[in-house]
Design brief:
By secondary structure, the chain is of the alpha/beta class. The protein is built from 13 helices and 10 strands. Helix 5 runs parallel beside helix 7. The chain is globular and about 65 Å long. The structure holds adenosine-5'-triphosphate.
């Protein structure tokens, strides 16, 4: 369980707080998407969960962040990293080895995982990300998407309770982005791992996450299921968040009383709503 209470943070070099009065509870095993306009504070929010603030970036930190009851201000970064695995935006800066297998081994050895457990952990992590065949490849020769998967596998091998990923599909084409979300979702369900993903592609988030968090100027403006949040497509647009087109289309039809039911999150949902409309069953009474 992650409990964030009245969190405010100002970077030491910054004039104004970047996070303002954040309250957020994330149950174990949840799949959470965080989105918002550029510079709204999404990455900073994840830094509060993985301890990068205040441990690496000092500043004025108010409120509390607890992961499994551990206060991230009081615990050391090493202790937090045993609970929270992170994949940052700049994958290259995260890589420490030149070969894929060594990259996965590095964290396991550093964490003091018993030698007898290590081979199985490496196999499992590579298999979970579908990259077993990359094991002996040079990291420098991998595509952006493959490096992304290696970075995630390296963190999964450590079996963190929480996995935080900052824009994991930034370098990926649409099909690879979907593949990464498929793998993350499956892993989260199978292992009960809490996954928090910062992502600009709201359509992708809406298909996969249980909870969608919209950050606006350092505050949580909306938080709920994708259906609940996408209800507010007009307000989201005002704060620089474009809803999926399928959602906006159906919301317009709903506003005119042509379609009933909740906001849709997927193209399939929009097709269903339009079919209902065309068959005469979708209109509101
Ligand atoms: N180390 C730092 N010191 C001072 N200010 C910082 C630091 N890191 C981030 N900021 C500022 O905090 C604000 C929020 O940045 P953050 O990266 O959290 O936003 P974001 O929503 O993740 O943005 P993006 O979508 O562009 O990645 C920005 O104005 C940024 O300049």
């Amino acid at each position: 369980m992650i409990e964030i209470s009245q969190l405010s943070f100002r970077y030491r070099e910054g004039a104004d707080p970047i996070l303002k009065g954040i309250d957020l509870s994330i149950p174990d095993g949840a799949f959470v998407g965080v989105t918002g306009a550029a510079g709204s504070g999404k990455s900073t929010l994840t830094y509060a969960i993985n301890g990068i603030i205040p441990h690496c970036y000092p500043g004025d930190f108010y409120g509390s962040v607890r992961v499994d009851g551990v206060d991230t201000c009081e615990a050391s970064l090493t202790d937090i990293s045993r609970l929270v695995g992170s994949v940052c935006q700049d994958i290259d800066s995260q890589m420490v080895s030149s070969v894929v297998e060594d990259e996965v081994l590095y964290g396991l050895e550093n964490f003091g995982v018993p030698k007898t457990e290590i081979p199985a952990r490496v196999d499992e992590a590579l298999a979970a990300m579908g990259i077993a065949e990359l094991r002996d490849r040079s990291i420098a020769e991998l595509s952006g998407g493959q490096k992304q998967k290696v970075a995630v596998a390296s963190v999964l091998a450590l079996k963190p309770r929480v996995l935080v990923l900052d824009e994991p599909t930034a370098e990926l084409d649409p099909a690879s982005s979907v593949a990464v979300f498929d793998l993350l979702k499956r892993y989260s369900v199978e292992h009960g791992t809490t996954v928090i993903v910062v992502e600009q592609k709201i359509a992708l988030l809406s298909e996969y996450v249980d909870t969608l968090v919209i950050v606006d100027e350092g505050e949580i403006r909306f938080c709920g299921t994708p259906h609940e949040v996408l209800e507010h497509s007009d307000k989201l647009l005002e704060i620089g968040v474009n809803c999926p087109r399928s959602t906006s289309l159906v919301n317009r039809l709903r506003a005119r009383g042509l379609v009933c039911g909740p906001a849709v999150c997927t193209v399939e949902g929009a097709v269903c709503a339009c079919e209902g409309l065309l068959s005469g069953k979708g209109a509101c009474a």
